[in-house]
Structures are given as structure tokens and as C-alpha cells.
Design brief:
By secondary structure, the protein is of the alpha+beta class. The chain has 2 domains: 2-104; 107-188, no CATH class. Helices cover 64% and strands 15% of the residues. It contains 9 helices and 4 strands. The chain has helices at residues 2-17, 21-40, 42-49, 55-69, 73-84, 91-105, 121-135, 166-181, 185-188; strands spanning 108-115, 138-145, 152-157, 160-165. A 4-stranded mixed β-sheet has the order 2-1-3-4. A hairpin with a 2-residue loop joins strand 3 (152-157) and strand 4. Helix 2 (21-40) packs across helix 3 and helix 4 (55-69) runs antiparallel to helix 5. The longest helix is centred in the N-terminal third of the chain and has 20 residues, at 21-40. It is elongated, with a radius of gyration of 24 Å. 18% of the residues are buried.
């Protein structure tokens, strides 16, 4: 719990330093690349996350990596800060929190959209526009194919699902019929 709250503070601070989405995507990619380098070599990871390497050695390695990868000054400064404060072991947690922090800071809500088939660009833009109008905020969607839907979509907002599929509409119709006629539900179920 403590590590998570510390990681959140670092993620929030980094997001505050970022000026636009393009820069956010670049820095996120650069941090993911660095995290990948840590993951490829256990000795390097241990040295950067613990006291096995001295701070001057860690700084020298970060300088070399920045030159080789041509990463931005903000990314480099952020990694130096993590190194100076002995928080490099939080990098993966920070990366997990980064998107949520970015979306929150920019008033964007992320929704998950399930569809029977892949959405084309035109339909996706129309869907996002409609969702933004409905929720009165900017929307980012995460798409997932769900062949069980047959047709239509389901939208997940946190733990709430909005079902706009044929199966969902038929279920609503059936429930409305049962309610209006007073027929027991078990008569309709097979």
C-alpha cells in the first residue's frame, strides 16, 4: 500500500510536468523502454534498484542510456530523480499508474467497449462522439471483440455495463413483457 501511494505521487508529479499528449506518449514509451532494459538484465536491474551500484555509477549508466536511446530531458530527469531518491524499484508501478493519472488530469474518462466485430474508424469516431455527449466529458475507449454479442455493443464504465446488443435488447423486452403480463419468469426459461 505504501509503495503504491508513493508511486502515485511520482506519477502525478510527472504528469504535471508534461505539456501535451504527444509528449506524454513519448515519455511513457521511453520509460517503458528503460523498464524493458531493466527486465532484460537481472544484474543491471538489481544494481539500479539497490545499493549494489554507487550513485555516480548509476548516474553514468543513465547518461549513457539517454545518449544511446536519445530519450527526452524530462524522461532522463525523472529517472535521475528516481535514482537519487532510491525509488527505481517503483518504476513498473508508476508506469501502471501513468495512464490513469494522465486521463484524470485531462478530464478524460476511459470506457471499455465490447463489440461483435471490430469497429471501423468512422463508427468508432461516431461512437466516441455519442459517448462524449452522453457523459459530458472527453472519452477514450478500449476495444474488445466479444463474438457472443452477435450484433451491437456493450459499454463498461467501471463496474457498470450498458448493454446495447441485440441479446440485451431482447432480454429487456422479455423482462418488460413478464412485468406487464404478470407471468412467472420460470415459464419463459428453458
Amino acid at each position: 500500500m505504501r509503495e503504491s501511494s508513493i508511486a502515485q505521487r511520482y506519477a502525478r508529479a510527472l504528469i504535471k510536468a508534461i505539456t501535451n499528449e504527444q509528449e506524454y506518449l513519448q515519455i511513457k514509451k521511453e520509460l517503458e523502454t528503460f523498464s524493458g532494459l531493466l527486465g532484460q538484465n537481472a544484474e543491471f536491474k538489481a544494481g539500479m534498484e539497490t545499493f549494489l551500484f554507487s550513485k555516480p555509477r548509476k548516474k553514468e549508466l543513465l547518461e549513457t542510456i539517454q545518449k544511446e536511446t536519445k530519450s527526452s530531458e524530462k524522461t532522463h530527469h525523472f529517472l535521475l530523480t528516481l535514482m537519487e531518491e532510491n525509488r527505481m524499484m517503483l518504476l513498473d508501478i508508476i508506469l501502471q499508474l501513468l495512464e490513469t493519472q494522465w486521463l484524470e488530469a485531462n478530464g478524460i474518462e476511459k470506457l471499455k467497449v465490447y463489440s461483435a466485430v471490430a469497429l471501423n474508424d468512422k463508427l468508432e469516431k461516431k461512437l466516441i462522439k455519442g459517448l462524449e455527449k452522453s457523459f459530458a466529458k472527453k472519452i477514450k475507449i478500449e476495444k474488445e471483440i466479444d463474438p457472443s454479442l452477435v450484433a451491437g455493443i456493450k459499454v463498461q464504465r467501471g463496474s457498470i455495463f450498458y448493454d446495447f446488443s441485440i441479446a440485451g435488447n431482447l432480454r429487456k423486452f422479455k423482462d418488460a413483457l413478464l412485468t406487464s403480463t404478470g407471468v412467472e419468469k420460470s415459464v419463459w426459461e428453458y
